[in-house]
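Long-time lurker. I teach an intro course on protein structure, and each term I like to show students one example going from raw sequence to a predicted 3D structure in token notation. This year I'd like something fresh instead of my usual example. Would anyone be willing to generate the tokens for the chain below so I can use it in lecture? Attribution to the forum is fine with me.
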Amino acid sequence: MEKILVSACLLGLSTRYDGKSVPCDAVIKLSDRYTLIPYCPEIYGGLPTPRTPSERVGKKVVMKDGRDVTENYNEGAEGALELCRMLGIRRAVLKSKSPSCGSGLIYDGSFSGTLVKGAGVTAELLLSSGIEVFSEDGLSELDGGDNNEGCIDN
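-- Reply from a regular --
Happy to contribute to a lecture. Here you go:
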């Protein structure tokens, strides 16, 4: 079975900044057809759970209290790429809007809830390395249009 890297929070692991998970039944159901490999870039990068919210500002990632955590996010992204290369993973389903995993839209760094076009650190690195990245809302694209399910925006 093909292996797919998946944001751990989408599989029900409590790895989000707020200590919660956002399990997505449509993502979990992918395990019928794929081997799902859970991964959290922030945890791999050495950040605790829970943690202060972070947003991406250009190439930097900063916490709401102003701390620069770019190095942690870069380390987590590098770990994801290494894991993909080691396991031959060519596709990933990553949490939308996240400063690590978001693809298409991410928060703008003002902590006001404003979304802008962009990608999280991990999503950007995986994409630039030839790995396809999908959000939990883009599962129909993953399955070539066969899966119309997505997740409630969370």
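Some talking points for your students: The CA atoms of residues 44 and 79 lie 7 Å apart. The mean pLDDT is 93.
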